[in-house]
Predict the structure.
Amino acid sequence: MPENTFDIVSKIDLQEVSNAIQQALKEIHTRFDLKDSKSSIVLEGKDAIILQSVDEFKLKAVNDVFQQKLVKRGVPLKGLTYSAVESALGGTARQRITMQQGIPIEKAREIVKLIKNSKKKVQASIQGDLVRVSGKDREHHHATRHTHREGTGDRQIDQEFKEKSAGLNPGRFGTGKR
């Protein structure tokens, strides 16, 4: 009998972040209080965003607009880490935002421990930046998903997690053959 598996992952969709940046810039350049502030939002590589504005007050306003656009596009704010506001050239303020891609090893260990303590007939293993949960019985699988969701809420793990099917058994969706 094939095993049922699913992965617990934490990834931020870069395309959605890019779209949120474009929407935020559009609003910033048309908003009355931010129109001439020379504010910018730049995606730096695959893991950082740079916010820049004339002063700290306008930088906070730019950040608020950007966060609204991220939430609208379904990007979790828990995956963002903000550095301190620093002064840049010309008296401007700059802030770096780091995007978390993958589950850090400490949080992955907490998830594995939570699943093992639940006494379900499944195995959890850390595989790079994701946690793979596998088991033979589908009922235990669903109970484990529920335990993971409840446990992360109780433990206050500050990260947004998604589950994606990684199983050999296609489940209720079938094999695609007709």
Observations:
- The chain has four helices and nine strands.
- Residues 17 and 107 are 24 Å apart (CA to CA).
- The helical segments are 14-30, 56-72, 105-117, 138-155.
